[in-house]
């Protein structure tokens, strides 16, 4: 009998990391996760989630190398919270993962973003499209992927890049819905529309993205040393499309849809690093930047896809803003 494969997840309490961990577990993988405070991380994920928590820091290469011993896959989902200190953290954390992959022979699974592309890149960006970032975070993202590609070509370090748009979904790290909704008294009072209603925007529902990652990991042996796939997810008319779904799910057809208060945020941003970094990325809402999943569909046969209103309902339910009591089963699998 073939023993189960083992994955080390770095950033398992975040959006991509948590959903990928759960999807891997459902597909029979043994999941190990790195955390500075394993007890707190285990409580956050749910005590019944079968994850082997290991104490360590993604900034410390030695602890990552030790945690990855015997792993077949390293999910590099580490990300500084609130956009804070990208310059000082993302490159060292990836360097730690690369060191661990060299030592263990594991493939790296790297969640990528659309930050790498210029505003005029279009709505159907393929994996070989030129990467011409216009922001600091975009340039860091391009550098990170260059590090992965160089390691694959020079050292044989295998990498799987899975690129997607803005995350939303239940559980930790469902960032888009957090800042796109205005909430008071445990209810959604309005939804922001950051860009023009005619401009499309790419959203990735985290359970679908995690399932996609797990399916690709199951077929790792069929991939080249450096493999990249694009995940289309939900292509919607800016925040208007998401806002209309929120209206339907809440049964509030007149729920206000408000323009994003960019001018106010600019006044506050000098005193708030997260807001400064958010402003830098608003260009993504002003031009259609979407991903072509043809290569992914050709390889897997389909892209996992949850209907929009079902996905929005699950997200709002987890946020505790539905009229009925929230179910909150996401992090407590049977």
UniProtKB/TrEMBL annotation:
Organism listed in the record: Caulobacter ginsengisoli
Signal sequence range: none
Domain NAD-dependent epimerase/dehydratase stretches: 7-173
Transmembrane segments: none
Annotated protein name in UniProt: Nucleoside-diphosphate-sugar epimerase
Pfam families named among the record's database cross-references: Epimerase
